[in-house]
Amino acid sequence: MKINSAEFIISNSDVSKCPLERLPEYAFIGRSNVGKSSLINMLTNHKNLAKTSGKPGKTQLINHFKINLNWFLVDLPGYGYAKVSKKTKEVFQQFITDYFEKREQLVCAFVLIDIRLEAQKIDLEFITYLGEIEIPFCIIFTKADKISKTKVASHIAAYRKALLANNWEEMPQHFVTSSLENTGRDELLTFIDNVNQD
Ligand code: GDP
Prior knowledge:
Layout (H helix, E strand, L loop, with lengths): L5 E7 L12 E6 L5 H9 L17 E6 L3 E5 L10 H17 L3 E9 L6 H12 L4 E6 L6 H17 L8 E3 L8 H13 L1
Parallel strand pairs: 2-4, 2-5, 5-6, 6-7
Antiparallel strand pairs: 1-3, 3-4
Family: Belongs to the TRAFAC class TrmE-Era-EngA-EngB-Septin-like GTPase superfamily. EngB GTPase family.
GO molecular function: GTP binding; metal ion binding
Organism: Flavobacterium dankookense
């Protein structure tokens, strides 16, 4: 898929105020600092569409971007940021779950995982939650440039093991990306294109 246009539409913390248009939506979510903004900018060919920030936890809203006038890329707040006060955390978790449980336009969630790290409890819990509410999702491993190709393979194998230990029968569809080196961009955009055409 060629990106012809990418336009910011609206930010909010209330799923009922998300755009009314019935375009397919792809949601991007992960722990703060996982590289979500960098990935969104890489995918859309924009330097600063999603705000990359040195301050994790800053973008705590549902952000809708309209791509090629026919689908929405949805940038969701990073989760698991310790310095967000408990109250704020509860609020954004509620609207994240509202988004996943109520948004009919959502066709696929992308859960971003830093390829360097061992499987984190919060990610596994979130993936389990998506399974329970039957939201189709893929895993996007980020920052692949930071480790060798051999390590990429062994880290994915370790992740698969962690998922199997958490009652998954198989490794979900996954992508390996590096926003620094543009890795995985074509694969992800082709995947979205194919789902849009189904
Ligand atoms: P977010 O909080 O998930 O939106 O993460 P950001 O996109 O702001 O990235 C967090 C940090 O990781 C920044 O310092 C980025 O420059 C860095 N980063 C993000 N993606 C990559 C990547 O693919 N490779 C490398 N080497 N660094 C990355």
